[in-house]
Specification:
Blueprint (H helix, E strand, L loop, with lengths): L7 E6 L6 H12 L1 E4 L1 H9 L18 H14 L6 E6 L5 H17 L2 E8 L2 H6 L4 H5 L6 H10 L10 E5 L5 H14 L8
Parallel strand pairs: 1-3, 1-4, 2-3, 4-5
Helix pairs in contact: 1-8
Length: 197
């Protein structure tokens, strides 16, 4: 018998420019979840630089994000309402620390009794790169260097979620709302009692 879940934790993954934040926001609205876009965690670290999305940053800055992320997960587990669902986003490179980050969110879902789903986004590279250089990304302290992100897509491998956790979506031609509806349907198929039936 399939288990039923009142809450869900969704982890939206993919290269920059594939629509993680916009799809995540549409999904959060659709399932009454809290959006925790990774740019909000990084943003507080990048704001002191007034980062324009292009200028080099000290590599060690990313080590400073780990305690912020751990504090956030601790707040969700220990203090936040247990009735909340969450949508996380990130671009995780294929390295050991990414697997640890992924496992920390998945294990949080298990401890909360929430359904966990990893959503892997894909997108045509030209469509992806065309979305990189826009004022919205710069305002959010996100990368805004199209040639740099084309190189990144072609040369950097991302972390791959386990098959049993994973739901794949191509965002090249579909709207964030359409993609959110597909994710919601997959959550329901896996046992999520989504708001609105």
């Amino acid at each position: 018998m399939k288990r039923s879940y009142d809450t869900a934790i969704v982890f939206v993954l993919g290269y920059p420019g594939m629509g993680k934040r916009t799809v995540g926001a549409a999904l959060a609205t659709l399932i009454d979840a809290v959006l925790l876009d990774n740019a909000r965690i990084h943003g507080v670290l990048l704001e002191p630089f007034r980062w324009d999305g292009i200028a080099p940053l000290p590599p060690e800055i990313w080590d400073r994000a780990t305690p912020i992320r751990q504090a956030l997960l601790g707040v969700i587990e220990d203090l936040a309402p247990t009735s909340n669902s969450y949508v996380f986003t990130n671009a995780l490179e294929d390295e050991e620390s990414s697997a640890e980050h992924y496992d920390s969110i998945k294990s949080l879902a298990v401890r909360r009794g929430s359904l966990f789903l990893a959503v892997q986004l894909d997108c045509d590279i030209d469509a992806q790169v065309s979305r990189i250089d826009n004022p919205d990304r710069i305002a959010l302290r996100k990368g805004a260097d199209p040639p740099g992100y084309r190189w990144h897509r072609q040369n950097v491998k991302l972390f791959e979620p386990p098959t049993e956790d994973r739901f794949d979506i191509d965002t090249t031609e579909t709207s964030p709302q359409e993609n959110a509806a597909l994710i919601r349907a997959e959550l329901v198929r896996r046992g999520f009692a989504a708001p609105g039936g």
